């Protein structure tokens, strides 16, 4: 193998590793929630993730401070939407429905980005993206149909909130055009999300728990903090820097596949036939968006 091909091969291996790390994060989070409240769980993960990214940026000699006042405000807003909103909503979602459904609904994120970018930024909504939105809506409908006439689990609404919150934060960052290093941008967003999680812990979380009662909770917390947050964000930025966006997007598409599969194996989820229909529709829709070049405004 040539030297030129070796870095590219390593980057593609990192894409696969990222998909596995973030995918396993779903059952890991469910395990951690056995003993930890969503507020405590996310407070730890977000702050450790922020410290890890700041550490990498500092080791590479990058400026950690964001000099412009408005950029600082933008990063706080984005952090509340992108990190605090997504992580807290997805945690509460797992307390209210199955992990597989949460993973499926949460990964309608690219579709909400497409819709909000069209609505807020004026990006062109071409035929493929319009079809993707329709498929995504059909996927969510397939998950909801079995509950019509009864009560839709509140966890499904939280999962939808996680997807919309993440998408809103992504579009907000693009609109705000924050001028800073990507590691620093992500680090400050994680820190802002961590502040929100700690505030929620102090107000609503009760007595903070440090040591788990069940070993599964300890393993889930360790995995989420070390691999699912700190290491995964580092790998993500390395992948984005080395590979085209469409190739990097394959790692994102792997996440719900690994998440659903591992939830079945590790936490005993048993998806219904309609869950699988919704999964197929959402994955097809997300693929249409993530693997297609960005439209021109």
Descriptive key words:
297 residues, mainly alpha, 11 helices, 78% helix
Walk me through this protein's architecture:
The chain has 297 residues and is mainly α. The protein has one domain. 78% of the residues lie in helices and 0% in strands. The protein contains eleven helices and no strands. The chain is globular.
Principal-axis shape equals: globular
Q: Over all CA atoms, what is the radius of gyration? A: 19 Å
The percent of residues in helical segments reads over 70%
Order of helices and strands: HHHHHHHHHHH
Q: Provide the residue-averaged pLDDT.
A: 85
Largest sheet: none
- Percentage beta strand: under 5%
Count of runs of 4 or more consecutive helical residues: 11
Structural class: mainly alpha
- Count of β-strands: 0
The unreliable regions are none
The domain tally reads 1
- Rounded to the nearest angstrom, the distance between the terminal CA atoms is 41 Å
